[in-house]
C-alpha cells in the first residue's frame, strides 16, 4: 500500500521561501498546475517556488542525468508560476539544508541543477554555494525609477543571468525608491534584467534593494547579491569578503581561488506540511 | 511525555485563509508574536488569521465562558497582525469545517465567539452561519476612489461592524477601480469602515469588491457580503436568497424568519502543518 498524501517542507533563505518536495525515486508527477496551486498564498501553502529533491540519475533531462557521477541529488526547481528555472542562489541553500537535516548528506556536497553542478558547504548556521563566474557586459544603460532623482549610469553583468547594478549616493536615496513598478532601463538588455540598487555602507559592505525580472521587488535575490558585490568591488573583485544587507536579511560574498563567486547565507526549514488528498487530487 | 511540536491546519473560505490551531484543553500559549510569525507569508506559514479551537468553558474571558452551556467550542480568533477580533464570517466556516472533519460535531452546531454564539449548519459542500441582525445607519457619506469617475452616494450599515456600500453602474466601473489605496469616505464613520462596491448582475445577484478597514482590498469579506445584500435588497431584505460573486469565489445570503442574516459559502481545509520545534521556540 502506498500512502498518497503529498508531503512538503516549507523553508526560506533570507525570506525567499520555498516548498521542498522530497521525491528521491521520481514518482511524484509535479505538473505546472500543481506547482501553481502549492505556491498560491491563499488557496495553497504559498512560496516563491518548489524545490523537488530527486536522485540525479533519475532526472528526465539528459544534461542533468550526466551530472549523476558528481552530484547524487538534483534540485528540480519550479517557479511559483509553474515555469522551470535553472538555478536559485537562495533556493539551493534551502535545498542543501533539507539534504543535511534529512541525513542524506554529511558535510560538503555537490548538488545537480539545470545550471550545472553546484558545490555547497556548511558553517555554523550558514551555507555557502559556489555560484560560478561573473561576466561583466559591455552595455552601460541608464536607469530611471520612481522616487529616483534623475537618471543613473548602470553596469551590466551576467551571473550568469542578466543584471544591471546602480550605485546610489546614500541610504535615503535607496529608501526613497518605489519599486512597485519596474525601473526603466535604457537600452534594456535583450533578455531583460534584474535591477539592483546599492549603497556602500562600509569598506566591504553594501545595502541593496532588487527588482527581479518578471517578479517585482523581492526581499532577496542570490544572483543579484553576487552581481552587486562584483560591481562594487571593481578591480578588487576576487579578494576578501563582502557583507550585503537586503530587506530579507544578510548574506556574504567571497571568491574561490579560481575566481568563482561564493554566496554565503542562512537557510531554515520551518515546517512539515501534509496536503489533504482531495486537494492534491483536484490540482494534479 | 508531551510532544511539543505545534500543529495547525491551513484552510480557506472564498480565499480568506486561516490557520486552525486545535487546542481543546487550552494549553498552547498563543502570543501576539507567535500569531504574527505563523501568519508571515515568507518566514512563517502565512494566513489572514489564526483560529484557535478551545473548549468554551476554558476560555479566559468571562463573557465567552458564559457561552459554554450553548456552545461547546470557542473560536479564539486572532488577526495576522496579532490583534484579537470578535468574529469573521469566512473564518467561522473554516472553524466549523475543522470541527466536522475532526469528528468533534455531527450536524448543526453552535460556536462560541467574542461576538456571541453563532449557529452553523452544513449542506453539501457549503456551510451556513447566522450572522445576526443588520442595522442601517443614518449616515449617507459620499465616496471617491482611484479609477472611479466622480463621487458616489453611499449607504452606511452595521453588520455589526461598520460598512459603507456603494452601487456602481456596471462591471466596467467595478473593474476600473484601483483599491490599492483606501477609498475616500466623506464624512468617514467615526469607527472607520469597510467599503463595498457592488454591481447588480441579476435580479438577486451582485458582483462585489471590498476594501477592508486596516487591511486593504481582500478577496472576500463575510460581513461585507451580508451588508451589500441588505443594502441591495432594500425593502425586500428579509426574503429570498441572493448570490454574491467576489474575487475569491461565491457566497449566498438569505434570512432567518426572525430577520437574522445567513451567510452560506464554501470552506476547505487543505493541509496539516507541523512547525519545527526550534522555529516555534524562537517565536513564543
How would you describe this protein?
Two copies of one chain form a homodimer. With 284 residues, the first copy, chain A, is α+β, with helices and mostly antiparallel strands. Chain A is 18% helix and 38% strand. The first copy, chain A, contains six helices and 20 strands. In chain A, the strands form two sheets. Chain A has a 17-stranded mixed β-sheet that branches. A three-stranded antiparallel β-sheet of chain A has the order 10-9-13, with no helix packed on it. The mean pLDDT of chain A is 95. Chain A binds chain B through residues 10, 12, 15-17, 41-46, 219, 248, 268-276, 279, and chain B through 10, 12, 15-17, 41-46, 219, 248, 268-276, 279.
Amino acid at each position: 500500500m502506498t500512502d498518497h498524501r503529498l508531503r512538503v517542507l516549507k523553508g526560506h533563505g533570507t525570506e525567499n521561501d520555498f516548498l521542498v518536495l522530497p521525491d528521491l525515486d521520481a514518482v511524484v508527477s509535479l505538473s505546472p498546475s500543481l506547482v501553481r496551486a502549492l505556491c498560491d498564498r491563499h488557496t495553497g501553502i504559498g512560496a516563491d517556488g518548489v524545490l523537488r529533491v530527486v536522485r540525479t540519475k533519475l532526472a528526465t533531462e539528459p544534461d542533468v542525468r550526466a551530472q549523476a557521477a558528481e552530484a547524487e541529488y538534483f534540485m528540480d526547481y519550479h517557479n511559483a508560476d509553474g515555469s522551470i528555472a535553472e538555478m536559485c542562489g537562495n533556493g539551493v541553500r534551502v535545498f542543501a539544508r533539507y539534504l543535511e537535516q534529512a541525513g542524506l548528506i554529511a558535510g560538503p556536497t555537490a548538488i545537480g541543477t539545470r545550471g550545472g553542478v553546484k558545490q555547497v558547504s556548511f558553517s555554523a548556521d550558514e551555507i555557502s554555494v559556489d555560484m560560478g563566474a561573473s561576466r561583466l557586459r559591455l552595455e552601460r544603460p541608464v536607469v530611471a525609477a520612481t522616487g529616483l532623482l534623475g537618471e543613473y549610469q548602470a553596469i551590466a553583468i551576467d551571473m550568469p543571468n542578466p543584471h544591471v547594478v546602480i550605485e546610489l549616493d546614500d541610504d535615503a536615496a535607496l529608501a526613497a525608491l518605489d519599486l512597485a513598478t519596474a525601473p526603466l532601463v535604457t537600452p534594456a538588455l535583450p533578455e531583460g534584467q534584474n535591477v539592483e540598487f546599492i549603497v556602500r555602507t562600509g569598506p566591504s559592505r553594501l545595502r541593496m534593494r532588487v527588482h527581479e525580472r518578471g517578479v517585482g521587488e523581492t526581499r532577496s535575490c542570490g544572483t543579484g547579491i553576487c552581481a552587486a558585490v562584483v560591481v562594487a568591488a571593481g578591480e578588487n573583485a576576487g579578494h576578501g569578503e563582502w557583507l550585503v544587507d537586503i530587506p530579507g536579511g544578510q548574506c556574504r560574498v567571497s571568491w574561490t581561488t579560481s575566481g568563482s563567486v561564493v554566496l554565503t547565507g542562512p537557510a531554515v526549514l520551518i515546517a512539515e506540511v501534509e496536503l489533504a488528498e482531495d486537494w492534491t487530487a483536484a490540482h494534479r
